[in-house]
Amino acid sequence: MRFYTLACFAALFLLALNGCKKSDPKNGDDPIPPTPKTWETVGNVSLNNIVTTLSSDPQGNIYAAGFTDNNGKYYVIKWDGKKWITLEGLRTNYSIYHLSSDQSGNIYASGSVGDAADTYYYIAKWDGTTWSDMGIHSPFAAHIYSTTDKNGNLYAAVPNNTGQTFVYAHAGGNSWNNLGSLIPDEFVGTISADGRGKIYEVLNRGSLNYPIVASYSNGTWSELPRITNDVNNQMFTSCTDLLGNLYVGGDLYDKVARKFYVGKWNGTQWIRMGGLNGNVQSLCTDPQGNIYAAGSLIFNSNGNGFDVVKWNGNKWEALGAINSKINIHAICSDPIGNIYSEGTFTTNYINQIKVYKK
After folding, report:
1. Is pLDDT above 80 for 259?
2. Domains (ranges, CATH) in the chain?
3. Separation CA 77–CA 52 (nearest Å)
4. Percent of the chain, pLDDT > 70?
5. Which residues make beta-bridge pairs with 239?
6. Cα angle vertex 112, ends 73, 75, to 5°?
7. From residue 82, how far is each of 14, 78, 93, 97, 104 by CA, in Å?
8. Closest Cα partner for 207 from 223, 236, 186, 237?
9. Which tens digit of pLDDT belongs to each residue from 242-251?
């Protein structure tokens, strides 16, 4: 009898420690819904211009660019988990379109990053203390595309003064290796690398923006099967996941479904991730391999703002309701899977950066 009493007391004590009682729908209790996740503002920063690019480093710091200071100069800021810090030493007259990091935490900024005399564009490297010129230049006419792969290698698509664009690889050291291009005279929309030896360039060919995707492997460029036969399906964003799948987005439009889509190349064929009601301006993957898209996408129930969407394996879902008043131009994931997005949220159209925590 004493043992039974002690056992009952212990059971009641454990229940008390666990909140007394969990609801059980099978017993007629009301289920306790999970606390809904929401977008949270990252720091107290108000930006003059739209953020064009976001990136994270291996330590989870977040970097943003595309906006200007009071003198109209473009620069880069860093979120260290507590506050925003301006990475001084880089002030350029034209926009920074691409930010990426390597395994050591170096940050690379490119796009229309011009030298002091505005005679050429270059890739700027932040080593944690100072900015430096990576030594590859483009004439002051067309910007440089750059990206890093999961191994930390740096790649750049660099136009020359004859109107051609070549892809270069920088695997450390002091030199660049010219990898050429499938069609150097065509406009490059974006580049990506999978970390397994393949580099992808997305070309928008001719005045009708005919879409072409090419891959580089073992010293050779080759064109992938066509993602679409439709013209004016320009692509200007891409990314790869840890399995090496390639994702491309932009103005890809399915005339039959009357919806936009993201194209996924799985190494063998293209898969259309359809159902989008607007074009895609930014793509990213998280460490778990989930794919996210943003742009002119309205997915919340009220239909009164633009959202970030996540592919659930079968369809796109809104990642909460971020409700940006203007198209979302930049998203990224940090090393634990939190998703960061720029947007315009206030009634006076102030630009901010928000996070959707895992």
Report:
1. yes
2. 41-356 (2.130.10.10)
3. 12
4. 88
5. 247
6. 35
7. 38, 10, 29, 25, 21
8. 186
9. 899 999 999 9
